[in-house]
Specification:
Helix content is about 30%, strand content about 25%. It is of the alpha/beta class. Among the domains are: about 170 residues, 3-Layer(aba) Sandwich (Rossmann fold); about 90 residues, GMP Synthetase, Chain A, domain 3. Helix 1 packs across helix 8, helix 3 packs across helix 4 and helix 8 packs across helix 9. The protein is globular and about 80 Å long.
Length: about 575
């Protein structure tokens, strides 16, 4: 299959191919990019007029068609422009749960040349306030629950409550056309917030080109799989053999693709693969209200004839294990994708057995906000053969493994994963130092992850990084450590991840009390929860009377704390 794939990729991306890759100027660097592409996101939006009366977003009993969506976006854009002065380069923050107004606000903002600041719906008041301070939006659009968190704060920015005021924007100019302001493909369109080693959120700034490229990569991947399958089938018939399951897992779907979107819209999975990809493929997004509910997911799959679903973290197992699983018809499902945390082979087998309509069509991939989620993918038979791998580099994307001297290493040798593509973030918003630290010569991006390449397949050593992956949410230990360390009864602490069957990982805090102090775990949990999102609050606590083990450089040896290694000889602990 590898040779079939390589032949198909060459046909698709080579000279004259439908996804021909040509050298292009990308922020001052010559990088291979798809030659045929939309010039900006407003062009993508305008093209959706062809979908007419097909549904774009469904929530409850309401479905917004593509035609209606275009009218609403144009009206909201007119209101943003005339009432709030939103124009090219301005920021508009969106902090909300998934609801139909989210994509309308997104498309209206980027159509004006403004930049969407996608706020995390789990954030506390402190975290929302910090994002506003960092990006200085001209307007904040939020739902009632999120705005209530900052009701006693004066953030110095106008706010629109979706439930009570967004309808006014939708009705502002019912006959308006889409904006006509000039846009360029390397203009910033989106800021996604990602934590880092400093413990403060950074704003990964993403261009129109990057978001359009994400969609094109998926289209090209699908075309390559189709062509590779056709080549394999033709070769089998030349040998007088009947192709085994030819086209079963890679055949073209019939009817409209219907995606159940349980991923938040401020995430790569919800925004890129949901809002933008859905519109680009004439698909329909099905949304639901409230916290995750496995039975409601099953009900919606049956009711809306859902064809695609990407359950982050352990949501797939929670759904399969629900007592009512067998009561619902899930035969419409054709694609299930994973992301956010590693998926074990046992889980993959359980998902395939539970959803036989998938025909083995499971998918996984690797990416991040900084890479615009366009690094690698692993699908179908190749995923079955190498479930531990993040797959091949996506078309028009490059992967290299570098050593500590920023030099590429041979196959099979571990090092830091570096990625280059036309879609890489422009940089971190108002943080040139952090940008320079990760975007290196030739616009190669240092991901901070450790991995290796074997015959083109990328494998990530997830244990080599500190980041904790809990149910699709990234948690950087230092952010939690700094909060716990600030408590007067604590001398020091360390945060580690512990395995969890459903969530992938949970947060564990190892705490050393201050001399003579008693540590109340419930009080510490409340303390963390006052300034950090609930998913960052440790679920496990260990009180330790000895100082944390450290090496000669003063760095905490977390592998000692988790029992993965013995204390180093230079572990200078005081007793």
């Amino acid at each position: 299959m590898v040779n079939h794939r390589e032949q198909a990729l060459s046909e698709m991306t080579g000279p004259g191919g439908p996804f021909e890759v040509v050298e292009s100027d990308v922020v001052g660097e010559r990088i291979g990019a798809f030659g045929r592409r939309h010039p900006h996101l407003r062009s993508v939006l305008a093209a959706s007029a062809a979908h007419g009366d097909l549904g774009y977003v469904t929530m409850g009993d309401r479905t917004i068609t593509y035609a209606e969506h275009l009218r609403l976006v144009a009206s909201v854009a007119a209101a943003l422009r005339h009432e709030y002065g939103i124009g090219p380069g301005d920021r508009v923050a969106i902090v909300s749960a998934n609801r139909p107004e989210w994509p309308i606000a997104f498309w209206a903002t980027v159509s004006l040349g403004a930049i969407v600041c996608a706020g995390n719906g789990w954030w506390t008041a402190d975290e929302i306030a910090y994002s506003v301070e960092l990006t200085e939006p001209k307007l904040l659009i939020g739902d009632r629950a999120r705005l209530a968190r900052i009701a006693d704060r004066d953030l110095g920015v106008p706010m629109i409550e979706i439930e009570s005021d967004f309808g006014r924007l939708e009705a502002y100019a019912p006959d308006a056309a889409l904006p006509d302001v000039e846009l360029a493909e390397d203009d910033p369109a989106l800021i996604l917030f990602t934590s880092g080693t400093t413990g403060r959120s950074k704003g990964a700034t993403i261009s129109h080109r990057g978001l359009i490229g994400f969609v094109q990569v998926q289209f090209c991947n699908g075309a390559v799989r189709m062509r590779a399958g056709a080549i394999a089938a033709a070769q089998a018939r030349e040998r007088g053999e009947e192709p085994a399951g030819a086209g079963q897992a890679i055949g073209l779907p019939t009817g409209q693709n219907v995606t159940l979107l349980t991923s938040p819209m401020f995430h790569v999975s919800g925004l890129f693969a949901g809002i933008i990809m859905g519109l680009s493929t004439a698909g329909r997004l099905v949304l639901r209200e409230g916290r995750f509910d496995a039975e409601d997911v099953l009900r919606l799959i049956e009711k809306e004839r859902v064809t695609a679903w990407s359950p982050l973290g352990g949501l797939s197992l929670r759904t399969i294990d629900h007592p009512s699983f067998g009561k619902y018809d899930t035969s419409s499902l054709r694609n299930v994708g994973f992301g956010g945390s590693p998926t074990s082979p046992a889980t993959l087998e359980r998902v395939k057995a539970a959803f036989p309509s998938l025909g083995g069509q499971l998918a996984n991939g690797y990416g991040s906000s900084e890479t615009v989620a366009s690094v690698s993918s692993n699908v179908g038979a190749e995923y079955d053969a190498r479930p531990e791998s993040a797959g091949w580099a996506n078309p028009s994307c490059e992967i290299e493994i570098w050593d500590e001297h920023d030099q590429p290493v041979p196959d099979g040798v571990e090092g830091e994963i570096h990625v280059r593509s036309p879609y890489t973030m422009l940089g971190y918003w108002k943080n040139p130092e952090a940008t320079t630290a990760v975007i290196k010569r030739g616009r190669w991006l240092a991901t901070g992850d450790i991995g290796r390449l074997d015959d083109g397949f990328l494998t990530i050593n997830s244990r080599a990084r500190d980041m904790i992956l809990r149910g699709g949410e990234n948690i950087y230990p230092i952010e939690v450590e700094q909060r716990i360390d600030a408590h007067p009864s604590v001398t020091e602490c360390a945060i580690v991840g512990v395995e969890h069957d459903v969530l992938g990982q949970e947060v564990k805090a190892i705490v050393v009390p201050a001399p003579g102090c008693y540590v109340d775990v419930a009080e510490l949990a409340r303390w963390v929860g006052e300034s950090l999102a609930p998913f960052k609050v440790p679920a496990h606590w260990e009180i330790r009377r000895e100082p944390l083990p450290r090496n000669a450089a003063g760095k905490v040896q977390k592998t000692v704390l988790t029992g993965e290694s013995a204390p180093a000889p230079d572990d200078h602990r005081e007793h």
